[in-house]
Design goal:
Number of strands: 10
Number of helices: 14
Mean pLDDT: 75
Strand order of the largest sheet: 4-5-6-10-7
Largest sheet: 5 strands, mixed
Strand content: 5-15%
Distance between the termini: 129 Å
Length: 514
């Protein structure tokens, strides 16, 4: 009893310190236990996460996933994606077919020209059809139909100039005659200011709204639409198809110029006053940048050819293969009848270097055909749309350049402008390509000087606007091909549930007439 009393007295005296030590020891024990438990749980969870991650990585690297539901779901998604691409492709194709319409003037008797074209192409690109398939006995593009197109195009080319209120003078093969325009946009044609009653005069002629260099007109006609140098004097079926494509593009360019000029009927009020050059397809040099040239080369003209129109289409930036193919004007007959020294040459496919790839490099005909029939991952885009290069050199009111670019983008056949060069040949106009000299003398293409003779006694007056500048536009026109379901991996069973077909209704579209 006494011992208990002594113990209690001790606890009463030192109880606080004893209790503090006890609490501290218990707390340390609890902390150590909790820490060990947390570490063990963390290691367990980390191990589980690493295992899941490793499993997921194995699934991602598995080519053929063993999960059938996953494979079926992915295939369903891919089919929807392919259908979306096909619908977009089909939309572009159908929108373009509304503009690429074969004219009714080509229908002879019971023959529907558009239906004939459709029957030989069979909803394929031109390049996918063999030569014998284009002829196809008496039901294809026969000799008589090719001759019909040859005669038709002669009457159609002058209509291009009519769209923009210009004159088609390609038949003259050179200058513009003796037209001297006054400041009021009129000229005495033929013999000078004496008029119809004067010596050699034929009267007062109104200046066209847009002046189109006759040398360029002659170049377009001879390189794209003239087959008179051949013994048979007619195009091949394939050339007919490409020539009509060129005509559609040229008409589209004329509508762009007309839209920029609006309803103006006077030359001095027009935004675009002159067309120095229009080039299509293989006649267009590779996309380039302007480089500084030595004075002697610059004096020889932009292409260094002393102004000789037609000499290889301009050597600056041109592909070597193209230079070898075209040669001199009058020596590039596709079948060699008018070739060098009368010797026979191997037939040249009209698609040779006509289109460009995604890097704006010319494509040879064989590569193009392969892309249409057996496309690869490198050239599949050519099976969707061919890229036709276009270059225009014009004189325009620089305040309207933005409107020109807008109209190029809004055109029925959109011209995708890839390069615009302002005053591209400054300092080297005299004797330059296409003869469009602005130096006060008539160049090879027949441009009159910047100063125009006024009425008798009126002296010289500068008619051109101070804002007018020469520009050069390089662009691409996309020619869409019919939808290729095989290329997209679309089968008949995978057609959309709503029954919409991705086939282009070429027959219905092409048989329409203007």
């Amino acid at each position: 009893m006494d011992k208990v009393r002594v113990f209690l007295m001790m606890m009463k005296k030192y109880g606080f310190w004893v209790l503090t030590g006890t609490v501290l020891c218990v707390s340390l024990g609890v902390w150590m236990y909790a820490s060990m438990s947390i570490d063990a749980d963390l290691a367990k969870q980390k191990s589980a996460i690493e295992a899941k991650k490793s499993s997921a990585q194995m699934i991602a690297t598995t080519a053929e996933h063993p999960n059938e539901k996953f494979a079926a779901g992915m295939e369903e998604w891919l089919q929807r994606y392919r259908q979306d691409i096909a619908k977009s492709w089909q939309y572009q194709w159908e929108s373009q077919q509304k503009e690429l319409v074969w004219p009714k003037e080509l229908n002879a008797g019971r023959i529907d020209f558009a239906a004939t074209v459709n029957s030989v192409l069979q909803n394929r690109p031109i390049e996918a059809a063999l030569d014998e398939e284009l002829v196809k006995g008496r039901t294809g593009l026969t000799t008589s139909l090719c001759e019909l197109y040859r005669d038709y195009i002669k009457e159609e080319l002058p209509k291009l100039a009519e769209i923009i209120d210009a004159k088609w003078t390609a038949q003259e093969g050179g200058g513009r005659g003796m037209e001297t325009y006054s400041a009021t946009d009129y000229a005495f044609e033929g013999g000078g200011p004496m008029g119809a009653g004067g010596i050699g005069g034929v009267g007062l002629v109104k200046r066209p709204v847009v002046e189109w260099d006759s040398a360029n007109q002659q170049k377009i006609q001879s390189e794209n639409f003239d087959w008179s140098k051949r013994p048979n004097n007619r195009p091949t079926p394939r050339e007919v198809l490409y020539a009509q494509e060129d005509l559609w593009v040229l008409e589209n360019l004329m509508r762009i110029i007309k839209a920029v000029n609006g309803d103006t009927t006077e030359h001095h009020l027009a935004a675009i006053k002159r067309i120095e050059a229009i080039e299509l397809g293989k006649g267009v040099a590779t996309l380039r940048i302007q480089l500084e040239k030595p004075p002697m080369i610059a004096a020889a003209g932009e292409d260094g050819m002393m102004g000789m129109d037609g000499m290889m289409g301009g050597m600056d930036g041109m592909d070597p293969d193209m230079m070898m193919e075209e040669g001199m004007d009058g020596m590039d007959s596709p079948y060699g009848e008018g070739g060098m020294m009368g010797g026979a040459m191997a037939p040249i496919d009209p698609a040779q270097f006509r289109y460009v790839d995604k890097d704006y490099k010319k494509i040879d005909a064989e590569t193009l055909k392969t892309a249409m029939t057996a496309p690869t991952s490198e050239d599949y885009y050519l099976a969707v749309a061919k890229r036709l290069p276009v270059r225009m050199r014009i004189t325009i009111d620089q305040r309207k350049i933005d409107k020109l670019l807008v109209e190029c983008g809004n055109a029925d056949l959109m011209l995708e402008v890839r390069q615009l060069r302002l005053n591209p040949t400054a300092g080297s106009r005299s004797g330059g390509a296409y003869g469009g000299g602005y130096s006060g003398f008539e160049g090879g293409g027949g441009y009159e000087s910047e100063s125009y003779s006024g009425m008798p006694g009126g002296g010289q007056q500068k008619a051109d606007n101070r804002y007018d500048v020469p520009i050069e536009i390089y662009g691409i026109v996309y020619i869409y091909n019919p939808v290729n379901k095989e290329l997209l991996g679309i089968t008949d069973e995978s057609e959309s549930a709503d029954g919409e077909s991705t086939d282009g209704e070429t027959a219905m579209r092409s048989s329409a007439v203007r």
